[in-house]
Amino acid sequence: MELNLYNLATDPEVTCADLETEYLHLVGHVRNSISIPLAVKLSPFFTALPNFAKRLAEVGVNGIVLFNRFYQPDFDLEELEVVPHLVLSNSNEMRLPLRWIAILYKRIAVDFALTSGIHTAENLIKALMAGAKVGMATSAFLLHGVDRAAQILSDLQAWMIEKEYESVTQMIGSMSQQAVADPAAFERANYMKVLSSY
What is the pTM of this model? Predict the structure, then answer.
């Protein structure tokens, strides 16, 4: 079961601690009410995401889905109304969840799912190598139909044969922060290096 945590905190009196406590109470209640595996889908807007992920694991969450992709309203300037505006994801959007899964992999005792930006086998391979066990590709299916899944899997198999991977398990977490030669590449310290490469 996926529990999608989404509470847009608009009250200036509500602290992040208040909101996290409310979330943990809700997740704990759901965890105690069901016997099937429970995954929690989070937004990227947490002050200390690793700590909150750890606390979710402590209340019995089996998986964490990163990240919830909010649909932001737009303004209609002719009608002067606030209107919904659906924009499907693109492959560049997977970098935020990719980074956080790579950082959290093996530090938090849960399975990870990456959502937003998976359109190709290459995207899925990156998600697996970061540490995700699940890659979600809803936008790809909406754009290209459900047959896109067969194409992604076929391309994944071809890549694995070419690179001599025997199983997907070999890939999971192989590019996580703990597995790479330069762990700082995932952190703020790498910012100047990125800018100078432009």
Answer: 0.89
- By 3-state DSSP, what share of the chain in percent is helix, strand and coil, each rounded to 5? 45, 15, 40
Model pLDDT, residue 155: 97
Q: Name beta bridge partners: 113.
A: 65, 134
Q: Which of 92, 97, 83, 86 is nearest to 119 (CA)?
A: 92
Rounded to 5 degrees, what are φ and ψ at 136?
A: -100, 135
Asked if residue 124 lies in contact with residue 148, where contact means CB atoms within 8 angstroms, the answer is no
Coil/strand/helix, residue 74 = strand
Per residue in 29-48, pLDDT tens? 999 999 999 999 999 988 89
The closest of 150, 80, 93, 154 to 126, measured between CA atoms, is 93
SS (H, E, C) 93-129: HHHHHHHHHHHHECCECCEEEECCCCCCHHHHHHHHH
3-state secondary structure at position 134: strand
Q: How many whole angstroms separate alpha carbon 196 and alpha carbon 198?
A: 5
User: Domain limits of the chain?
Assistant: 2-196
CATH 3.10.129.10 is right for the domain spanning 2-196: no
Cα–Cα distance for residue pair 122/184, rounded to 1 Å: 23
Supply the angle between the helices 16-33 and 49-58 in degrees, to the nearest 10.
30
